[in-house]
Amino acid sequence: MADPRTDRGPLALFVLGKPPSSSSIFPEVFALLGHRGVRVEVCLPHDGQAPPPPEQVSLVVHRGLRPDALGVVERLAAAGVPAVDPVPAVRLLRRHQRLEERLARAGLPVPPSRPVPTWADVLVDAREEQRVVKRRRRGRGRGAEVVAGRAGDLPPEPPFPGPYVTQPFVPNDGLDRKLYVVGDRVAGLLKPSPLVGGHVETGRPFDVPAPLQELALAAARTCRLDLAGVDVVLGPDGPVLVDVNAFPGYRGVPGAPQALADLVADRVGTRR
Fold this sequence. Notes:
D-amino Acid Aminotransferase, Chain A, domain 1, 3 domains, 5-stranded antiparallel sheet, 4-stranded parallel sheet, 13 strands, ATP-grasp fold RimK-type domain-containing protein
């Protein structure tokens, strides 16, 4: 019997947290894959959609799923469908302290963090030095639920639910080096730190020097990610990792749609 995954071309299933917008990289990625003979379907489990049977799917790519919706990807993976990124890796990223412990064990530069149960304890912890405060378990949005300051600068009431982790603030030039990994490729954008100027959507492309490329790839490999956003600041002693995300937005990242299409085509065996 012919393999149902390949009789009409391999199927790449994109399981997404929301419909792909026209301003995202998805329309271009889907078009590039179509030119290579890769069929694309989108599944939106948050809207109640169910995926095709596993035997019809060659690869599942997922982004922006709530923890309960990750079960859709887990069931496909359990049936033998390769996943980008692996679900255990994505679940790890939702827990800041565990993520930072893994990076530190790999010898990568991360600020030391400590768990703090309540906001009152955060204010005590920040009495003597400026601290970065994160929710211990990642909540809404990427880059949300993070604040920095001394006790007198922080709000008296919790700005987001606990428990928390705190880290020493790394003095830097106010710019985040946003490093975007697709497989073994790295591109970069410079963005103002959200701790200084709030969240911004766009950044300025820059040539990523070799040491930062190596750092981004090492962080992605340590977290077992094919698609990763690695945030770095340049501290007094060199680059420091301040966050890692799975499947970042890639908006405005040079070459990102082509790189993602290449990776998917490689995984399903149709790259040209």
